[in-house]
Amino acid sequence: MLLNTEDFRRAARSALPRFVFDYIEGHADDGHCIRRNHADLAAVELTPRVLRDTTRVDTSIEVFGQRWAAPFGIAPTGLNGLVRPGGDLILAQAAAKAGIPFCLSTASNMRLEAVRDGAADSQQWMQLYVMHREMAGQIVERAKRAGYQALVLTVDVPVSGKRELDLRNGFRMPFKPTARLAWDLVTHPTWSLRMALQGQPDFANLTPSGDALGSASLQAALLARAMDRSLVWDSLRWLRQLWDGPLLLKGVLHAADARLALAHGVDGLIVSNHGGRQNDASPSAISALPRVVDAVGGKIPVFMDSGIRRGGDIAKALSLGATAAFVGRPTLYALAAQGAPGVRSVIEVLKEDLVRNMTLLGATRIDGLRDLASDPRPQAPA
Ligand code: FNR
């Protein structure tokens, strides 16, 4: 019985070849940051209010003028097609069905137009990595034409974190077969067969025309290239010329950066440490959240991801001032374990959990969650 995201995680572990599961699990260095994400979320207390009429609980919110059925969405993850063929679209469609947003990664395995067309009339955001400005500009133009509602610039990957699980497994881009990988494939025949029949992940967004012109390995090599490290606050002006919709920064943890974002006209922030995959010394996202919320002073929405595993975690983030939360790994576990029905059910589990938690806390609407949480802040840099 799959009752929670940990159950989906275990199911994913048996469904996937080791190198794919480890790619999802991957954390930087020693895993201090990923452990902090979970420990700090667990340590937050929510003090209930009692004797309130909770006959009806409304989880919906409004973000950038659009209604979301629940205050969480699916975070951008690259290589979803490696978890299951068509993974990007499966995630997007499950989110659309649940009335929550889906954010597509620059490193998706399907063209952004195909994902948009396959889940029209839904909330879809486009995540941007800037490896090469011209290429990034083309992705932004295409996302605009395709009807993505927001652009999410990820700012915590000037270089990839050291993911030792991937290095040990020999999993790197471009893909080079090794005896160990071959054994991994042979011992997971269902995944291997599905991939052989329907798969062939490539990085369709990275070819300028959007047609998967270049070979998969060429595109992978592009992706593996270091990011454009000359990207600075002033570069946001360049992006603004290309994109007039909501522009968010993902990976902001420092209050001073939150203030700079405001000064540069950013429309929203995602407090995130990339699920512990980047700087291992970063604070947990939940402990960084209050200082970013304070710095922003309600002028723009602040979102949060990294470590959310239960509806109760979403309640904690919202209580500490987040407009909504995002999940990365949980929906990938479900995608691996059961495909589309799995993703729909893990979303349902999170939502049901949230409704139960709100009822227990005496909150009938999202704003009723404010100020119920204990302060998770260690000493915060101002
Ligand atoms: C990610 N993440 C990520 N972020 C991003 O901006 N662009 C990307 O392409 C990816 N790719 C990616 C792949 C995988 C396998 C994972 C697990 C994560 C980070 C992601 O958006 C999000 O910040 C974290 O996953 C949130 O933490 P949890 O929910 O996984 O704990």
Automatic annotation (TrEMBL):
Active site residues of this protein: H274 (proton acceptor)
Cofactor(s) the record lists: FMN
Keyword list, A-Z: Flavoprotein, FMN, Oxidoreductase
Binding site for FMN: 76-78, 105, 127, 154, 250, 272, 305-309, 328-329
Domain of life, per lineage: Bacteria
Keyword Oxidoreductase listed: yes
Binding, glyoxylate: Y23, Y129, R163, H274, R277
Pfam family, one: FMN_dh
Domain FMN hydroxy acid dehydrogenase: from-to ranges: 1-379
GO MF term set: FMN binding; oxidoreductase activity, acting on CH-OH group of donors
InterPro entries for this protein: Aldolase_TIM (IPR013785), Alpha-hydoxy_acid_DH_FMN (IPR012133), FMN-dep_DH (IPR000262), FMN_HAD (IPR037396), FMN_hydac_DH_AS (IPR008259)
Family statement: Belongs to the FMN-dependent alpha-hydroxy acid dehydrogenase family.
PANTHER family: 2-HYDROXYACID OXIDASE 1 (PTHR10578:SF107), S -2-HYDROXY-ACID OXIDASE-RELATED (PTHR10578)
Name of the protein in question: Alpha-hydroxy-acid oxidizing enzyme
Source organism (scientific name): Rhodoferax koreensis
